[in-house]
TrEMBL record:
GO biological process: D-alanine transmembrane transport; D-serine transmembrane transport
Protein name (Swiss-Prot/TrEMBL): AAA1 protein
Keywords: Membrane, Transmembrane, Transmembrane helix
Transmembrane annotation, as ranges: 16-39, 51-73, 79-98
GO molecular function: L-amino acid transmembrane transporter activity; neutral L-amino acid transmembrane transporter activity
Gene that this polypeptide is encoded by: Slc7a10
Domain of life, per lineage: Eukaryota
Amino acid sequence: CLATLIIMLVGDTYTLINYVSFINYLCYGVTIIGLIVLRWKKPKIFRPIKVNLLIPITYLAFWAFLLIFSLYSEPVVCGVGLIIILTGVPVFFLGVYWRNKPKCVNRLIESVTCWGQKLCFVVYPQGGITEEE
């Protein structure tokens, strides 16, 4: 979010749309690759919707063409898009991967979460208003 805010303040909206579209293409392709890997490694798990593997493989062929063409035509935009994605890596390690955090870090994360929930009217924080009230 911080990187997007900086880009919006410095750059124009067209460039921001290019960054986000590259990120979307990349995420869609990785999702389809995950689908194919799960179909191959865990063929027996329940799937409410099952399609012929030809459909995701065809999609991946077009996806690869779009991604390679994007990388060739606008490498700077793609690089900035990758940097935007990589800004989430430290957040992942600080918030999810690091299990034995000090109490002050846990309190900070909880307060930021509570503040965000209140700001966006998403979920009542713990100890907040319940359905009975």
